Amino acid sequence: MFQQRHRLLVNATWIIKLRWLAVTGQLLTIAAVAYGLGIELRMTWALLVVILTTAVSNLLLMVWLRHWRQLVNYEAWHWHLVLGLVMLMDLFSLTTLLFATGGTNNPFWVFYYVNVSLAALVLSRNWAWAINLLSVACFGFLLFEHIELRELMPTGWQTSIRQTGAPSLHQLGLLMGYTLSSGILVYFVTRLTGEVEQQEENLRQAQQNQARSEKLEALGTLAAGTAHELATPLSTIAVVAGDVAKFFDDHPPDHPDAQDVVEDIRLIRSQLDRCRSILNRMAGQAGQAIGESIRPISMSEFWELVLADLPDRNHVRLRMESDVATELTAAPVVVLSQAVRGLVQNAIDADPQRRGVQVSVERFAQHLTWEIADLGEGMAPEVLKRVSEPFFTTKPTGKGMGLGVFLAKNVIERLEGSIDFQSTAGQGTKVTIRLPRCARA
């Protein structure tokens, strides 16, 4: 966005400079012809009016550009419309000047090429071709009619078509030559600018992908370090909890509530085992799909793996047809299931009333679609725009780090898929995941 804005600003600035140069050059040319060469111009007043109009319009363009610089949001089509109208005015101004000074006998008709070249460089493809077609029409009009200057036609070989009654072979060739040359010029210039813009877009996309990969690498390092640091204390707690549970098993206490304490200790031990398993996965994958081999898995097996570690899986309603359940896909199963599990858990957490999360799995010709819909509070538009940013979360402090959606989006996009969020405040959120039926890492 910044590069596009900078390019538009530079183009508009140079157009203003070129128009001032054109105004100065036209005034000097009229002065040199009228006073230096002594050539009588029959419509000098009309020429001065055209030049004055160009100067006034350029002042208005400068005011518009100053206002445009201050805009935070802008539409590219609005910019093309303003400069397109300015270039149309310049085209008609040049035609008027040539009409009053000999038409196509005037050697300055070659400035039509300047107009169409600028249009092809600065404006959109449609605007460029429109201005080119109008320039051909203007050139043809000058061949048909113009005010003669005796000094520009010493042999009389290019009298206007209106006076001769029929175009000469030279006039037809001149019109055809201009039509072809201007069309070729516009075609190649617009194609060249299109290729440059595409290369800039590819470069920008590559830079974004590199920045995203660097973020993932940093997250992977952080996750591996966290797993390493927490492994020792968790193991110590697990050993102590196991020893305590074994002691109570060997020496049953007589207190009536002792059995509840034993069950709590066993629960602590089971939760510690789960934490250690999660940390092992964090150290091994950390959201990076390239670290795991691709293997086939059916949809039923995949979703069972997704829901297996969810503590609130009874709040999830899975809708999947039997033929879809047997559909095979190839993916890094552990990493992808972690990513989708995080999205399902977010949907569960979004609804404090626990009205349930609806998961739908559908199959299409080229892709599989998974929809995760909740009945929670939804998200405002400004929150929805930032939902996939790293470390952005709307959960209370200590409830989330804001990495689940970010990691899920990166994993899914690495598999050539897409993820889309639709949400309305007060009505819930729907997450749509699309993956190729034969996913490739």
Overview of this structure, please?
The protein has 441 residues and is of the alpha+beta class. It has three domains: 2-167, no CATH class; 229-284; 289-436, Heat Shock Protein 90. It is 63% helix and 10% strand. It is built from 13 helices and seven strands. The chain has helices at 2-36, 44-69, 76-99, 111-122, 125-144, 161-164, 169-250, 258-284, 299-308, 322-325, 333-349, 381-385, 404-414; strands at residues 295-298, 316-320, 328-331, 357-363, 367-373, 418-424, 428-436. The protein is elongated and about 125 Å long.
Short description:
The protein is α+β, with helices and mostly antiparallel strands and 441 residues long. It is built from 13 helices and seven strands.
Helix/strand layout:
Layout: H1 2-36, H2 44-69, H3 76-99, H4 111-122, H5 125-144, H6 161-164, H7 169-250, H8 258-284, E1 295-298, H9 299-308, E2 316-320, H10 322-325, E3 328-331, H11 333-349, E4 357-363, E5 367-373, H12 381-385, H13 404-414, E6 418-424, E7 428-436
Parallel strand pairs: 2-4
Antiparallel strand pairs: 1-3, 4-5, 5-7, 6-7
